[in-house]
Amino acid sequence: MATRSNNVLGMLQDIASKEVDEAAVALAKAMKLANEAQAKQDMLNEYRLDYVRNLNKILEAGMGAKAYQNFQNFFGKLDQAIAGQQEVVELANQQVKIQKQLWQESQRKKLSYEVLTDRSEKRILKVEQKKDQKQMDEFAMRITRTKHH
């Protein structure tokens, strides 16, 4: 029976290890996507800043109303893209948070099975040690009886 429960615990521990590995892969993927989304957000913000600098230089030199209106329309679209990308960044960060929680849960589960396996092995070892001690005691008693007869 002890061997059977150890086999079951071993199987559960293997499954938990696979779950941890899968959760780690999912977390890494989510982190990669979040980093890519943030990099795109940073690029859009830098792009906008460059255009603001260009606009300021052009305004110093003088600009027509139509050109200024085109710049304003462009900034409106760029700001929409930045806002949309910010949502993507937030969703990606939320996914990282979720995947991290799933990974932590799978780690705890794996650790629990490791603890149970360790306890089971210690129990089995204790039983075997008692059995060995009993056999040694019986052997010593037989030797003592044989010497006295």
UniProtKB/TrEMBL annotation:
Main location, first listed in the record: membrane
Membrane topology per record: Peripheral membrane protein
Subcellular location(s) per record: Cell membrane
Pfam families xrefs: FliJ
Alphabetical list of InterPro entries matching this protein: Flag_assembly_chemotaxis_eff, Flag_FliJ_proteobac, Flagell_FliJ, FliJ
Coiled coil: 20-50
The keyword Ribonucleoprotein belongs to this UniProt entry's keyword annotation: no
Keywords, ordered alphabetically: Bacterial flagellum biogenesis, Bacterial flagellum protein export, Cell membrane, Cell projection, Chemotaxis, Cilium, Coiled coil, Flagellum, Membrane, Protein transport, Transport
One GO cellular component term: bacterial-type flagellum
Molecular function as annotated in GO: cytoskeletal motor activity
A single BP term in Gene Ontology: bacterial-type flagellum organization
Membership in a protein family: Belongs to the FliJ family.
Protein name: Flagellar FliJ protein
